[in-house]
Amino acid sequence: MEREKYNxxxxxxxxxxxxxxxxxxxxxPTIEQIGNTYxxxxxxxxxxxKKLQRDGLIFVSPGRHTEVIYKTTPSEALQYTQNYYLARxxxxxxxxxxxxxxxxxxxxxxxxxxxxxxxxxxxxxxxEKGSNIVSISMFCCEIMLRAVHNQLINTLFSDVVSFFxxxxxxxxxxxxxxxxxxxxxxxxxxxxxxxxxxLFQAFSGFQSLTQATLLAFIAEAAKxxxxxxxxxxxxxxxxxxxxxxxxxxxxxxxxxxSGKYWEGKMLPSYENLALELSVSVSTVRRTVSLLxxxxxxxxxxxxxxxxxxxxxxxEKLQRPTIQKNIAMARExxxxxxxxxxxxxxxxxxxxTNEHIQEMKQILSEKKNCCVLDAAILLMDYSMVLYPLxxxxxxxxxxxxxxxxxxxxxxxxxxxxxxGKISGTIEVLERALDEKNTDLFSEGMSSLLQSVLTQxxxxxxxxxxxxxx
Length: 468
Known about the structure:
Low-confidence stretches: none
Number of strands: 4
Radius of gyration: 25 Å
Helix content: 55-70%
Number of helices: 20
Order of helices and strands: HHHEEHHHHHHHHHHEEHHHHHHH
Strand order of the largest sheet: 1-2
């Protein structure tokens, strides 16, 4: 987490110097102030500042101050800013939509969990010399997300910020903006009164004001500046190294859930799987070995690999990557559970009669299956409403992490009878028949809560003494 915050701090100050919002001779906030804003250790801030200094953008005077030394003309700054945002023009609305659906519920939940001391910290940031819409918003975001204890949603926030760079266009002035002053005063008064509802209202106002300013800037820039090659938004869920083996395992598990593979079916040879999945044979071998340890594949010497369910080999699965993936599966379930009501309310009315019949077919086939079967296929199907690649990719990653918990949830279902979801399936079917948004939201929430409960149980099993 510190590593991504290091990059976030570096990118933020680099862009805002090149945007012309920080000028030659301006002083950056102190290391302590930056650390408080991003909720990181002083050394993380120092590392980011050292990189900015190596790039010739700032000069760090030990024990004194950090000064911007890069000089840019107004025309250069405007051109850089226009090019930066015009290159993201096609994705801006999509990423705002992603942020609204996924991040906003966690900002709200985090705001309600803030301690009185947290509110006093926000008040202190507001009263700092040079505070502005960016510094206040960024601090609120960081402290609210810290309160919800979900690393996965934090990585999404970091990537959204890196994409937008918390813009504050030259066309915007805190001094002349009546709306800014209104939201600023509401932030201060809410913190003083320990009013979390008022604080979130002010916070939401800051976000809306920033969004409107950016969209107006892009629209104006597009009138005179050619649109450059577009840059897509990507959520970098794996921060340390590529997890090809686990990604492929998730794809093959999806194949089992969706019916491409079934128990008793022989898998293609390693060579054919490598061609089908566009990876090396060694990667396929590692993936099959992982799936074998998970209890989904049985290898037969001289014959091949067959889909065959058995209890996971917990002893062999006691390794950090598995623990991490199950934790991310839990966090994915938490995210989906937090956003499903809002998602259904926004999108349920878009379902055509054909969509409804196909979803009912999914539910009918999964009535007596592991709880994750129905949850994954319904979430996957909901993405057909979003042809936009960035949205599909973001929600697809959440489903992908859930898939890696499938062998464990399947084992619970087969051994204990847990995960029987016929009652929930009937609720969802009735909701589809009646086109009842609230009832469908209730059914999806129940489905995802069952998934979350069983993933938490898996975490306990993997960390228990008997499995070590």
